[in-house]
Amino acid sequence: MARPWRIAIIGGGITGLAAAVRLRDAAPAGTEITVYEGSSALGGKLRTGELAGRRVEFGAESFLMRDPAGGESAAVALARRLGLAEQIVHPTVGQAALAVDGELRPVPGGTLVGVPGDLEKVAAVAAPAADADRDAGRPLLGADQDVAVGALVRARLGDQVVDRLVDPMLGGVYAGRADDLSLATTMPALARAARVEHTLVGAVRAAQAAAPRTPGAPVFGTLAGGLSTLVEAAARAGGATIRTGATVRELTPTGGGWRLTVGPTRDPELVEADAVLLAVPARPAARLLADAAPAVAAGIGGLDYASVALVTLALPAPRLPRLSGFLVPATAGLLIKASTFFTTKWGHLTQPDGLALVRASVGRYGEETALQLADDDLLAAVHKELSGVLGVPLPAPLAGHVQRWGGALPQYAPGHLDRVAAARAALRAAHPTLVLAGAGYDGVGIPVCVRSGATAADEIIEALGGSGR
């Protein structure tokens, strides 16, 4: 009788846990799955906590409901698989604002991550250089070309559209700058359209037409019980042996698989596995690959990350606008780059006592000085800036929380997708039972990470000879 497969998943974030669920569903019965997580808790950037007796997210807040092709997203599919579909709730207030010229102005409709498909709709926020977006008789981009988002948009629509619209929207997601981030990675639909269309406005419209939204259909969702319930349910359904506080320090190929060196250097544990799924950020992955696949390690190890702090305040009955939150352009000179009014945005969090949970995101790529402030100083600075943006003094908070996420958000430079494709091709050729998954390669967001983990699990099953089911 053949010995059961032994599969090691390094990284216990939602990517690794989604991979474990996929392996449990599709790999041969009896497959031994072990998840190694270096920290004390599973979930990565998904962390539900409590503040002033209320449940609140200290990490990722929500997930997209649909995938780029129009079907349900991988996060929704996973929630359904885990029996959590009935817990999905949606924002009750969807309108966000931009902090521009000392006031909050509604984020205009008809844009794609801030890039307008209708110049008139953005006029209240930014003045597009409309005469620059001319049809030169050829597509905006070559067939395989990738550029920085900012470079393309500045050339076609001017600086204000980038600085007041695109940059704050990208900053809210990636904590990065439009002038540094890859178009093909952060806006793949627009990149595809730009390889056909002759104007940027035309490319935006084409990208929107290719993925139409059903009027009234919710864009985002979360779980009423908090996103940590997704983590806990995935850990149960994957049926893996969970090893928290277990740092994998070395990864060595053997004749029939892999040897993992786990734990402290003075007392290491050696573990054998038939296949390994690396679901950790690019830099620790590169360190583990340094000996087995040095070229791959060099290719992925250069990916940089931004650090952020999420500062949450529990405020007694403040006067808040009827908005989901607001974004702040980098040119405004504030520590805050975005804020979410949790108890306004999410109706299921609203309570009769009027207590409001307001969260602000601090820290942009290359501007992490603010993150060196002590927690109390950061809480005070955020409270002051929120009052300034809202134009009213906010009441003193009943409680506050600072969640620091060091190296949390990948910064995808132009050419990122090609570098990742080359790294994966090299691994498939030399080490088919070693795969990469996660935000560092495929993009941010819960659905992307879930899909990345499931795809990597399928690759491992194929490399080991199929499911046998």
Characterise this structure:
- With 469 residues, the chain is of the alpha+beta class.
- Helix content is 32%, strand content 23%.
- It is built from 15 helices and 22 strands.
- It has helices at residues 14-26, 74-81, 149-157, 159-174, 183-186, 188-194, 200-210, 228-238, 282-289, 294-301, 342-345, 375-390, 416-430, 439-442, 446-463; strands spanning 6-10, 32-37, 48-51, 54-57, 63-64, 88-89, 96-100, 103-106, 111-112, 115-116, 220-223, 241-244, 248-253, 258-262, 269-273, 275-278, 304-316, 325-327, 336-341, 355-362, 399-411, 434-436.
- The strands form six sheets. Strands 8-7-18-19-20-17-21 form a seven-stranded mixed sheet.
- β9 and β10 (115-116) form a beta hairpin.
- α6 packs across α7, α9 (282-289) packs antiparallel against α10 (294-301) and α10 runs antiparallel to α13.
- The longest helix is centred in the C-terminal third of the chain and has 18 residues, at 446-463.
- 48% of the residues are buried.
- The mean pLDDT is 95.
List the helices and strands and how they pair.
Elements: E1 6-10, H1 14-26, E2 32-37, E3 48-51, E4 54-57, E5 63-64, H2 74-81, E6 88-89, E7 96-100, E8 103-106, E9 111-112, E10 115-116, H3 149-157, H4 159-174, H5 183-186, H6 188-194, H7 200-210, E11 220-223, H8 228-238, E12 241-244, E13 248-253, E14 258-262, E15 269-273, E16 275-278, H9 282-289, H10 294-301, E17 304-316, E18 325-327, E19 336-341, H11 342-345, E20 355-362, H12 375-390, E21 399-411, H13 416-430, E22 434-436, H14 439-442, H15 446-463
Parallel strand pairs: 1-2, 1-16, 2-12, 7-18, 16-22
Antiparallel strand pairs: 3-4, 5-11, 6-11, 7-8, 9-10, 13-14, 14-15, 17-20, 17-21, 18-19, 19-20
Helix pairs in contact: 1-8, 1-15, 2-15, 3-4, 6-7, 9-10, 10-13
